[in-house]
Amino acid sequence: MKQQTKAQAGAKATSPNPAEPELYTFFRDTVRDLYWAENHLVKTLPKMIASASSEVLKKALAKHLSETEGHVNRLEKIFEELGEKAIAKKCDAMEGLAKEGESVIETTPKGTRARDTGIIFAAQKVEHYEIASYTGAHLLASTLGFNNVATLLQKTQTEEQRTDKLLSEMATSILMGKSKKA
Ligand SMILES: [Fe+2]
């Protein structure tokens, strides 16, 4: 028989240390922040894909878009595990990073290496923010004893790291290539 999740059991997750409820609240807010950030990225990535010229880059960003949709679903699973409603808390950092990506697109001509590498670097800044956030969230989940949640957070963190590495390789290959066009 499938084990009941905390949500199904109606139990509300709290910090295992009743003297420190703020640690749980901080963790929950971190997950809410990530939920906003990932949802925002789902809306932002299609413009980056449409603005890129390199087919390899377009494909990599499209793959990351479907992965990001998976990250949203994974966060919903985490809320369920915690017995919390899936609530997004505005992430100012992701909003700023997305704006920066848009400005790179506005200030570089289409079909140039400048545009494509600009998109890659903007995407990597997003990845680095996410890696830092997932690393912190994972540590908090482990500390609070939410082992299933920690495993889910770790999976996403690993995927973000893989994407970051792939983007680095792509930037090198675009910039070290002979063509000045994308
Ligand atoms: Fe993500």
TrEMBL record:
<dbReference type="InterPro" id="IPR012347">
    <property type="entry name" value="Ferritin-like"/>
</dbReference>
<dbReference type="InterPro" id="IPR009078">
    <property type="entry name" value="Ferritin-like_SF"/>
</dbReference>
<protein>
    <submittedName>
        <fullName>YciE/YciF family protein</fullName>
    </submittedName>
</protein>
<dbReference type="InterPro" id="IPR010287">
    <property type="entry name" value="DUF892_YciF-like"/>
</dbReference>
<dbReference type="Pfam" id="PF05974">
    <property type="entry name" value="DUF892"/>
</dbReference>
<dbReference type="InterPro" id="IPR047114">
    <property type="entry name" value="YciF"/>
</dbReference>
